[in-house]
Amino acid sequence: MENPLLELQEYENILEALKKAKGPLQAAGTLESQKVHLMHELGEDGGFPWKLVVTYDEQRAKEIYDDFRSFTRQVWLYPAKDLLFYAADIHGNLMTRQRISVLRHLMEDEGGVVVTTIDGLMDHLMPLAFLKQHAVTVECGQVIELDQWKERLTELGYERTGQVDGMGQFSIRGGIIDIFPLTEEVPVRIELWDDEVDSIRTFDPESQRSVEQLDRVVIYPASETVLTKGQLEKGIKRLEEETASYVKALEGQKRREEAIRIKGIIRELTEGIREGWKRGGLDGYIRYFCPETVSFSDYFPQGDCVVYLDEPGRLKERGETIELEFRESMVHRLEKGYLLPGQTELLYPAGQVLGRLQGPYSIMLTGLDQKLPGMKVNHKFSFDVRNVNSYQNSFEILIKDLTRWKKEGYRVVLLSASRTRASRLAGDLREYDLRAYCPDGETEGEESRAERKVLPGEIMVTYGNLHRGFEYPLLKFVFITEGDMFGVEKKKKKRKKQSYQGRAIQSFSELSVGDYVVHEEHGLGIYRGIEKVERDKVVKDYIKIEYGDGGNLYLPATRLESIQKYAGSEAKSQSSTVWEALNGQNQGKGKGCRSGNRKGSGKALCGPSGAEGLPVRQRYGVAEGV
Q1: Is the bond preceding residue 24 a cis peptide, omega within 30 degrees?
Q2: What is the pLDDT of residues 495-544, one digit of tens each?
Q3: pTM score, two decimals?
Q4: Phi, psi values for residue 148, rounded to 5°
Q5: Smallest Cα–Cα separation from 71: which of 33, 16, 29?
Q6: CB atoms within 10 A of CB 359
Q7: In whole angstroms, what is the distance from residue 165 CA to residue 210 CA?
């Protein structure tokens, strides 16, 4: 698609300033989806392989990500960690997978767009080069030493299981190695002939059938904190030294309970690391093991990356709020003896993060022509942009505007959610004597409409999906989205009997003890918090879910993606009548779910089909393989 901004002098000026590294720059008057159009064109015309977009919250980040996909497929969304849960070993694999996937593109690709929020830049990370050197490449014909392989995968954060059925797991059975990398959609099976790799293929974890034969596979870490033995030993030493000093200080203040608590927490942590079973959940202690940490913004090559700050005033406000909430939480935990003083420094200050972003290749995009207190702006540029009014499904009003724009010599681009609908819409518009054409799927032999520019008075109907249309009055150029024309399509909720309504849970901060949750196999239950359970002499965190028959399901805390928060109207009522009614819907539906034996029968209460052999702690089912 052509870039009409090249006809605008203000665009030429900001582009020239950007190329000459005269930033930070401010682009005032920019709006919603038009910001994405401006960011994309500046990055392309400026010759920057990488673009980092920083915004103020997750919803806005998702909107920017979706809009960028109308211009390029090389765009990725980098989610921020739940900073308040840093010290807890309860991080699910879903967010880690999204973050590791973005890191993989940064290591493998030559360019692209990364969209994140301000809090995504505030946590301490290991250097990207360190993570890259820990990636493991496996090729056919390669010799593998199984004992070293087991140790290497454990160091990378993978969990050994009897059978791989989830991300971040691996199993070894004879000469067969199954592993589910976080960067892949399906697990990988490596078959050995003696100690040589005979074949590599992906497979379906349910049917165990092969999907695709591979010549090589790159296995990236399953954790963002990958540590060597040397780093672990030095980190343990730092932890023990600070613990001894802090315990002595607490005892001097006659706070014996807090001293005993933190001493026990650090002892359990260090013993787990020494024994080899504790590798995950070390993000909260990263400064002890890796003093030389960096911010996510440091992952981008200087000079080859342009940084966009979406509404920097809101960025500053949001960053300061996150920092304040984090500090308050850390102080409270520190007072109660749950943290060491060094753990309160797990966050880069918002001011420091924003200061790093305000470099010679940075642009601040604001809707208003405003001053930005506390921020440096070398040059300011103003754009005349208007949002397109919504037509609220009125095709008649749309035709009137298009007819008026045709007379005034406007160039119009209509974006449709599918190529088929775009072609049909172009045909409908031609019936109203409008010069509309669709560049997608035109008859061969005609002029290449996909390559030529849209001319004054013409309407190009093409595939695309922006959140909001916009107009450049000085250029007489308009973008109109399908949402502007027909409104945002709302999915009708189909009411079905005996069904659960749930919404995905991104982090544990969304759950409170007593909330109703829906497990993908076992149905509706009540979230009862996180408990530590010992299995095979290994203590891990488990999500406890209580069911109406008195049974309990213990789900590994890393499997957060397998439950949803119940969103039905019935969940608002805590009455026993509602609970019995909802539980009655679930009778007989959960595979392997049985009523609990109050005398302790030793049977698994809620495990997957055929999981009678799962170990049981008292009378509760521990569903390790769920």
Answers
A1: yes
A2: 444 444 555 666 666 777 888 888 877 788 888 888 877 665 556 678 88
A3: 0.76
A4: -70, -35
A5: 33
A6: 17
A7: 15
